[in-house]
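re the bet — no i am not wrong, look at it urself. input seq straight from the record:
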Amino acid sequence: MNKLDEILAHKRREIAKRKEEVDLAQLRERITPGFTHRSFRKALKREGEITLIAEIKRASPSAGIIRENFKPTELARDYEKGGAHALSILTDEKFFQGKLKYLIQARSAVSLPCLRKDFIVDEYQIWEARLAEADAILLIVAALKPEELKHLLEVAAEAELDVLMEVHDARELDVALETGAPVIGINNRNLQTFHVDLAVTEELAPKVPKDRVIVSESGIHTNADLERVRAYKIHAVLVGESLMRQPDVTKAVQSLLGRF
């Protein structure tokens, strides 16, 4: 069993346990009207500008603890101050030491759209994200069957959530495009080996129709990296670990975006 399979197996057990405590109908009853959705898609697509999804992430399976002084509210504010256009907040507990409350804390502190970044395998998690007032969720093609992707995309639309659909290779890209997902994330990290190569974006970005929003994920550390993927005509980058390791994330965002 590879790491992704291990994570997905645990995630399904985790969700089954949560459903025993609060079933889907009860969860949906807790959602109150009046939610003001912040468009994740619109925040990412700006003429002549590469936008930034800045990630709030305490740890990862490959890197261990990334940031000891971890304060989601402060990080969210500092990211916004630096010029980030959207936030991604890790909510997986076992493997990334995230929590859904980190999303709630971060979103309440800023005006940016916020993505729930987790391994979504069940519509229950989508309604959890809606209850937490997320603006978007992540769907990973490698983690789901095509029919599951389509179903979860429909549920997300019902819940008024945007979707970042993540792919790692040409086959997965074909699957993602078939679903009609408007925002495509190209992850430069191989989920089996964890090797990162920006050439993945170089290969896949030209195959994405012009009406979709393209996000390059992983392996972007500097303004030079950002300029490299700019040449592939992507709209946004998602950057986490390299920003989270910096003592001053506001300055790190400004440096990444070339705003000094």
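see?? DSSP finds twelve helices and ten strands in the chain. told u. also The mean pLDDT is 94. so pay up
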